[in-house]
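Sanity check

After download, print the first record. It should look like this:
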Amino acid sequence: MLTVTGVIVAALVWLGLMFAVAVYGERRPQVFARRWPDIYALSLAVYCTSWTFFGTVTQAARYGWPLPPTFVGTILLYVFGIGLLMRLVRLVRETNSTSVADFVASRLGQDGWLAAAVTFVAVLGIVPYIALQLKAVAMSFALLVRDDAVQVPAWQDSALYVALAMGAFAMLFGTRSASAAEHNRGLILAMAFEALLKLGAMLAIGIFAIGLPKVPQATELLRPQAGDLSGFAPLVLLGVLAMFTLPHQFHVGAVECRDERHVLRARWLFPLYLLLIALPILPLARAGDALLGARGVPSDLYVLALPLSQGHEGLALLAFLGGLSAGTGMVIVSTVTLSLMIGNHWLTPLWLRGPWAPTREDHVSRKGKHAEAPDLRSAVLVQRRIGILAIVLLAWGYSRLIAGNDALADVGALSFSALASLAPALGFALWRPQTPPRAVLLGIAAAVAMWVWLLLVPVLVVARGLDTDWLRTGPGGWSLFAPDAFFGLIGWSRLGRAVVLSLFAGVVVTWVASTWGAAWWQAGPRRAGA
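Expected structure tokens:
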């Protein structure tokens, strides 16, 4: 039987190996120079988080989907939208952007308020996704050591210590240098390295599931069957937008791309990776339903419960390490990216504009000579580390208050849809950089408001066990504005309605504001620098 100590030691050894790979990549970049296009393509697999290991199996068990719809959207983008991806990489390099907020602001008038708004939406959307990683690792750890996964006091919650451990590794990986403009070769190499582990772990579990007794034959396990497609299309769309709107994916795919020609290698290698890691998902779902469904085992845990039920603890530990690796990779990149955005677009503007801001006299010595500028590198690193810690703790709090009532697949869809509200702003930054920043701000506000009303509010109402009748009848009987029947769209899934109307509101409000309010924008006060 696996012990708590044994599992923790195995996890720390693996994470330490990832860190060693990162350090080696930083110190000896020339060793991997010729293979960097392949490393870049593999690092994009940070997209495959613990949701891939656990949540997508639930999707397959529910609907019979042979390939996660978000993967379908991503594959379609890389196959048919390669020109758009290369244009994005080129523009990110030309503007010297270090994040999605930097890129949008630099293309739209260097507006500081716009960058701050993009950062807010990024935090709003990514916190549930980080909470998903914490919940997935905590659930799998509890199952592996046969612990009771019920709600416990905060200091006994394993998710808290998972959050602290992931935050510590994020600080080690991403705050080794104060410069945000340098390419983090070590981090990208570590993400490519962990991509190989989680792929190998998933394929090993899939082969094991196909060979299990008392389950359908391999041909039956692999054969797609007709399933519920009502929520498929919105998730495909979110899979397309995720490459632009997920902060960690934007960072790895655009900011860390050293040469836009590397995207051409990723055009076939990354979709191939997604197909390979998705192959075992449907067999795992069907084998889990056949062997564990009657026992009440959650489908989120089939990946671990199947080998444990057959006495293969070593294979279960490999699956746990794969899920831990996937979740940790995402948390490291996203928290590093968000801490950078928060520091640049929230904390630094406050520091420069507040009463504590340095004055000209602060830089002049008593003799009238200019003193040397203070070295702020250590302060910047401390600021980023505090940001990383705050983000993971906020995600942990979310996982305790809300995410514990949702399946992992539902939490992932909630996060993807929130971040998709940035897509209109990114679109205007790419194709209409002359759009007034205030118009884009209004578009972001409209898109987020629509998402909150149509998706987040219903999720909160259901999660807190409140009365759900008004979600269909509307506030005060105004059914036209009811979240589940908005303007008569009752035949749509809740996710589809929220995604489509959020994008529609963002585009229309931005377009109308930029067209009809052009004179007012020009008459307004000068825009603040980013």
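If your output differs, re-run the checksum step. Summary of this record's structure: The chain has 23 helices and no strands.
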